[in-house]
Amino acid sequence: MFKHLDILDEKHVEIVANAIADDRIGCVIEDIRSASDNDESLYGECLARLIGPDGRMYAASAFVPCLHVLREVSMLDRHMVKLVLDLLDADPMSVLGCNLSADSIADAAVWNDILDQLHHRSHLAPRIVLEVTEAHGLNSLLFCVDKIAEARSLGCLFALDDFGAGFASPRLIQLIDFDIIKINQAFVCDIRPSFEERNSLQNIVGLASSFAPRIVVEGVETVAQIEAARAAGATHFQGNFFSDSVTRDVAKACKNFESFQHL
Prior knowledge:
Blueprint: H1 11-21, E1 25-34, E2 41-51, E3 57-59, H2 64-69, H3 74-90, E4 96-101, H4 102-106, H5 108-120, E5 128-133, H6 139-142, H7 145-153, E6 157-163, H8 170-175, E7 180-183, H9 186-189, H10 200-209, E8 214-218, H11 223-232, E9 236-238, H12 243-246, E10 248-250
Parallel strand pairs: 2-4, 4-5, 5-6, 6-7, 7-8, 8-9
Antiparallel strand pairs: 1-2, 1-9, 1-10, 2-3
Helix pairs in contact: 3-5, 10-11
């Protein structure tokens, strides 16, 4: 459905908008595990999934990058916040997170809608983690500091996603006090030696640790990567190594999928 479309084709927006209207956008949940106890979960990140009219499931990677390029990701952000709040309402023991673009925070109308959702169910706010993604540079996030403080006053936690890649730069963690910093998976996939018997993963984890109390290394797939991330000082891991046991399929918010299932 998406593979034949150019990344700038606005058909992406139409497909996603229709899926939201038809309750065909849902999520899978991937746990963030503790480095000190791999059976302990910090929270579950809700990863968007789109169900096509034919029942086929599409991962977020098939459509979210296009929405970012077209500056239309905010409609998905609003839907995902609602979906996460619904899931938290249904399970009083869960702690869940979802991506939220800097564009959505910077846009007054979109942010007011999201903040209204959080206010109306403020009892759920302490159990939600908003993972900030920055796809278009620093400028949009410079106007977000006060807005992030508004949501944090309700109890929401904020994570910086993909630190070390793209626009998720060290300058961001100087400007905004994040509760969690997530290290881009490239740093655990390509660990390079450095001076004084340290390596590149240790250096970036050390930098992030100066600004946030919880550091997640993303993209772990092997025991060796887990050991390297733990040695670097990461407090938590996320990745395919745990996928068989921690990725949970959640209702899909779809009219044709009414029961909870497990992947």
